[in-house]
Amino acid sequence: MKKSKLNKQIKISLLAVIAFLLMFIEVPIPIFPDFLKIDISDLPALLGAFTFGPIAGVVVEFFKNLLHGIFVGKTAFIGELSNFIGGSVLVIIAGSIYKFKKDKKGAIIALISGSIVMSLVAGILNYYIYLPLYEKVLGFPINAIIGMGSKVNPKVVDLKTLIVWSIIPFNLLKGFVVCIVTRVVYKSLSPILHKEEVKVVEEKKSLNYK
Question: Can you say whether residue 101 is alpha, beta or left, with left for phi > 0 and alpha for psi between -120 and 50 degrees?
């Protein structure tokens, strides 16, 4: 049992480190402002949530952002807070649904549901918390952020339209991309992530038959 628990902790730690490294790979999307770039750093957290449960996914998100804030952070942990909460919402929703319906259909429903909820939460929190914090703590005017949004989308004229036409659609697209990659990768990595658990179950069955 102790060996199994240690093995689980090691795998979760590795997933967190991989997630941290994936944060460096960012892809700008021309239809969104420059400060919005897609990365797939939520992938390891989703793999952890699907394998070990939603809490494991949250742990991966926490340490990923903690490492980023310590070694790279330029936003006084505001960006990391945003990434952590958004990612945690995604893995909690997706991981919880998949926990009760572990099949292809369940995985798809879990990933789509998690992405939608994450996008809505991101929109609300950016409006009330994150963007005001950027202005108050870092001195980065909200009007400047709105201006960046209006350059690529004329429909962005104020904070509300920035949320509706930039923040929410961006997070939906990001969630969609991460979900596709997760769906493809999980099938091949699942045997590796579950390897120790399967071994423990087989050992228990063997003991029961003796």
Answer: beta
